[in-house]
């Protein structure tokens, strides 16, 4: 049932992007890299913005200033910040408030740039709960391009796949004249793929280090003597 759903979604996406100009694989890769770079910059600036918001919350505890890293400032929040800028007499505090407003504009501009790039590409597959990168790629090749199962597996085995998929990730898929490529970007998720990959790798290294430390301690422990056995 899951694979049927993926296939249907991919078919709908393929129909939806029939009018888009066919692009080369090189342009496809270049565009996806630009999307990743843009989303990385959005993520970094959003993290900076979060720190600035916390500082504002400390300075103005009675003002409910919040920031959503995905949605940004709401119109009401932006209006409230503008009012605070106009009222604030302290130069330092006014500068902090203005910096938040300027950062919001920067983030908004970056998001628009990313969207413009995405609009020129074939429609991506939006990851649903339980889907894997491999399943999506295989279904795309078999359903959209009518490639037999064995050949599809061969093509998918040649590319790097993302192990951990989050709901809302965009899976970009390309196939033309025997060339297949697939990439994952943040899409509608709040979790950046690169950040998730880094966190997972860090946890794996820490786990391996801990296991190695415990193994080393066991090896270093003195073997029981005959006297110990008698006791």
Explain the overall architecture.
The structure is a single chain. With 231 residues, this protein is mainly alpha-helical. The protein has two domains: 2-15 and 24-185, no CATH class; 193-221. Helix content is 63%, strand content 7%. The protein contains eight helices and three strands; from the N terminus they run H-H-H-H-E-H-H-E-E-H-H. Strands 1-2-3 form a three-stranded antiparallel β-sheet, with helices on both faces. Helix 2 (25-59) runs antiparallel to helix 4, helix 3 runs antiparallel to helix 4 and helix 5 (133-144) packs across helix 6 (149-157). The longest helix is centred in the N-terminal third of the chain and has 35 residues, at 25-59. The chain is elongated and about 70 Å long. It starts with a helix and ends with a helix.
| Amount of beta strand | 5-15%
Major beta sheet summary? 3 strands, antiparallel
The coarse silhouette is: elongated
Oligomer: single chain
Major sheet: order of its strands? 1-2-3
Helix vs. strand class: mainly alpha
Give the beta-strand count. 3
How many domains? The number is 2
- How many helices does DSSP assign? 8
Distance between the termini: 63 Å
**Strand/helix succession:** HHHHEHHEEHH
Helix content: 55-70%
Instruction: Enumerate the spans where pLDDT stays under 50 for 5 or more consecutive residues.
Output: 15-19, 225-231
Radius of gyration: 25 Å
Provide mean pLDDT, rounded: 81
